[in-house]
Amino acid sequence: MRTLLRGGRVVDPGSGFDGIADVLLDDGRVEAVGPGLHAPEATEVDVEGLVVGPGFVDLHSHVHSIAGQRLQAMDGVTTALDLEAGLMPIDRAYAEAANAGRPLHYGFSASWGAARAQVLADIAPDASIDSGLAILGNPRWQRSSSKAELTAWLSLLEAELAKGALGIGVLMGYAPATEPGEFLAVAHLAAKAGVPTYTHVRELVEVDPAIPVDGSVEIVAAAGETGAAMHHCHVNSTSGHHIDRVLATLETARSEGSRVTVEAYPYGAGSTAVGAAFLEPDRLRLKGLRPSSVVILETGERVRDEARLRQVRQQDPGAPCLLEFLDERDPRDRGLLHQALAFPDAVVASDAMPVYWKDGRTESTEWPLPAGGTTHPRTAGTFAKTLRLMVREAGEWTWLEAFRRCSYLPSRLLDDVAPQARHKGHLGAGADADLVVLDPAAITDAATYTDPTRPSIGVRHLYVAGVPVVSEGNLNIDALPGRPLRGEPR
């Protein structure tokens, strides 16, 4: 199918082009970009007055459903990857996504947490996000490993890389007391295999002086020692009020040649399983937070005190919840969120979470989504909110810079592990026909903490592999063109 997008403002972060042009798509690729293109047999779409750019590549999405990916499509995402946590076994994760169909491209890292859970706690992973959340609250896998255990779970990770995992996802923040040598061993494995790591770092020393090693120092030290490419996930949520020191640590490491990258999202609350190690009442106090900072997603309950928090953690450690780590109403806290997004070369990544309904469903093929679905608003609104804040309101990013942060830079993190990623994040001839067309005056988020499944506003068209998933602002419910992004066997 050939499509000609006529007369839009084309923004290509790969070449630096920003100007009025046409874009011709053919057979899932960008065939040509330029003024006055002639293709009489193509379906012509008038995009005058709109911005046309490469679709957003989300490195950090825990959405493994048609329902969740449709929300992300309306936010401008064309590729949604679960790299921080990953899934295991990787073959099953890819097969199940392909069998169900996806509106967006998808991919997974090798799961450090699942590999450790299999070896240390005899928990067989089943490649699902629900079981993964349950594992997060299980203390049996959070201890340090014996030499034999370390060898065993490193071997599992190596086998997953051989099957095409997109690097190694490391949930260090969920096992914060583990021996630092184990993280270094993962970095050595990643360097040897030529793949990135994607890490939820452990606590900062300002929060917990007894931590074995400061989380931000650990990741830069491992990158410096091993030469591995190491990605620091959601620096906004793990750094909180200490973002100045953390960003300075990362910048120093980068200036010295370490391969450290960073991501952020524009919200002051995170989402996780209520049994996570960092939600233990004593650890919350160390962060300057209280049980009332925790909200159970399914019921909307704001936890009243430490006794209740301990109760819900014991009863259902995998229950999804919100954790308010910054107050978005406070100008100082808003400034900290802005600082994380504005950090040079920080990429935008959502940490999108599944949509849950009270009847237990985590999937729906209905559109609009059935009422009563709960999730974090970042699932539906991360990219549109970032564009509203950084381009429309603050004027700190040009559209070229916005597409560089949302499309180009995240794609380049994957070039070595998955060469097919080299066709993403730009609009050069031969690039993947993954494009977003947005209204620059209207783009904004609509999802809130109380109404989190409201789709973003302003994405007028979205093409995935050349297939229109969004047309004239409306979702095409029959479109499931998503394809796997998979690493080369290592």
UniProtKB/TrEMBL annotation:
Listed GO MF terms: hydrolase activity, acting on carbon-nitrogen (but not peptide) bonds, in cyclic amides; hydrolase activity, acting on carbon-nitrogen (but not peptide) bonds, in linear amides
Gene3D superfamilies for this protein: D-aminoacylase. Domain 3, Metal-dependent hydrolases, Urease, subunit C, domain 1
Domain Amidohydrolase: 214-470
CC annotations in GO: cytosol
PANTHER family assigned to the protein according to its UniProt record, in alphabetical order: COLLAPSIN RESPONSE MEDIATOR PROTEIN, HYDRANTOINASE/DIHYDROPYRIMIDINASE FAMILY MEMBER
Coiled coil (residue ranges): none
Biological classification of the source: Bacteria, Bacillati, Actinomycetota, Actinomycetes, Pseudonocardiales
InterPro entries found in the cross-reference section: Amidohydro_3 (IPR013108), D-aminoacylase_insert_dom_sf (IPR023100), Metal-dep_hydrolase_composite (IPR011059), Metal_Hydrolase (IPR032466), Metallo-dep_Hydrolases_sf (IPR050378)
Pfam families found in the cross-reference section: Amidohydro_3
NCBIfam families linked: PRK09061.1 (NF006560)
Name this protein carries in UniProt: Amidohydrolase 3 domain-containing protein
